[in-house]
Amino acid sequence: VSLGNICRSPIAEAVFRxxxxxxxxxxxxxxxxxxxxxxxxxxxPDARALSCLRNHGIETAHKARQITKEDFQTFDYILCMDxxxxxxxxxxxxxxxxxxxxxxxxxxxxxxxxxxxxxxxxGSEKDFETVYEQCVRCCKAFLEKPH
Length: 147
Fold this sequence. Notes:
One of its GO terms (cellular component) is cytoplasm. This protein has helices spanning about 10-20, 45-55, 70-75, 85-95, 125-145, and strands at about 75-80, 100-105. Helix content is about 40%, strand content about 5%. The chain has a two-stranded parallel sheet. It is globular and about 40 Å long. The chain has one domain: Response regulator (Rossmann fold).
């Protein structure tokens, strides 16, 4: 989960989906991404995010959406990009009866200890590549963890 669901979280979603497909465990995972805000609902990911993913042989048909109460009841994990997202998600989860999701920073799993995945929106292609690399490291480590 990220603020607008057009940069970081769609990259993380696409990376995780490719990893579970490559490992042939996609039937064990339901993968999606969402925003805490409603700013970009229905929009495709940022062109720079799509370009970065394509450069790594990954395609996505993601459309931005806002997180719902049902997400907190459906998903086992809701992983987010920064402390602001974490605060917003924890606040929203407190309003949901039967919240089963563990809410945490995706960066918690980074072997390089980069806890925050910075928003590349106002940055360059290099910043999107940094996000991609962080997402790969974090998603691999998350997937290796026993669930």
